[in-house]
Design a protein that fits this description.
Helix content is about 30%, strand content about 25%. It is an alpha+beta fold and about 400 residues long.
Amino acid sequence: MATPIVVPKLGLATDDATIVEWKAKEGDWVERGEVVAVLETQKVEWNVEAEDSGYLHIILVQGEKAAVGSVMGILAESREELDKLAVSMAPVPDSLTRAEAPSPDVAGSRATQAEVSDRIKITPVARKMAEEKMLDITRIKGTGPGGRITADDVEKAAEEREGQQRVPEKGAGVFFQGKTIRQSIPMKGMRKAIADHMVRSLATAAQLTFLGEADMTEIVKLREVFKKKQGPVVQKITYTEMLVAVLARTLKDHPDINCSIVDNELKIWEDINIGVAVALGNEGLLVPVVRHADTLSITEISVKVKELVEKARTGRLVPDDMAGGTFTITAVGPIGVSLFFTPIINQPECAIMGTGPIMDKPVVRKGEIVAAPIMTYSFTTDHRAINGYGAEQFMRTFQETIETPGLLML
């Protein structure tokens, strides 16, 4: 008996997922427990394991978006069963894959090229890509099940067209638009999801960034105290984890910053859920969420952040781990230079804090110039929801709490 491969429910807020990759080809034998496909939703990639062994029949191809519970493939017990499954999906006639050979319609008249295009089997993602790249889908050969045109087929067709326009340069690599290409990296999966999310954020919000510097002397002293205490958790508390605690307290004092604009309404959130950006090398970053951060101790925050970071770097995050954020912090590590940057708001939140490395800088204390550990920070707000006065008051409290961490005890 054939076993269906369905799109799993990956979280309470997940209704659909995109098929990023099939790990096996049509007709391949797949063992029970083997990763057979990779799905992507809300920037999270998820491995789908085969619930049984069998020959793979692919129904939904790479690039397609499918609702939770949809059957995206089937595992057949035998080759005979596989052949029957393949036949059940009638292939696209050759007459429908070539513009020069349109098929007649049911009335016997000649079909137009537009009508032929409408009847071609092509995934929604591939059709949209073809429209954006101005490609004639009647001239693209589909390699998906039943001759369906996939996103990869469209990409290949676009590359072939670009290749015809490239001018080779003797002794060099591929030459394109006056430049030599070193490497071409497809914008897909997590990379594309992050790119789309960032562009959508900038297009949606009126983003304004405030810059500041905070004296970290007392925070540095406090961390040194933690390091001397017994116990692995206390010893390993990081500056980012301490800053999550500071931000949670600051948001509690300034609830107007803990907000989102939803359906033309400004919603002030009761819950303080802080997202912590986790870098994944050149692939981008993920933002798991520390829920109810204002109710947790620094030690509890440290344990939770470490758990989420580990899940992010080992590909075990689920959408629920990244849902429900009300504010985000993104930190730059010790790169050896002072740094200001303009972090992009993580929609639908209305603010994000970006922190730079802690470096010794000259400051004036009691009339004398001394060295002090200074951290740069950048506070980006959605000016539709947060005005300059509100941002200034938030930054004042944030900086006071950093410079006097004993306030966390009040």
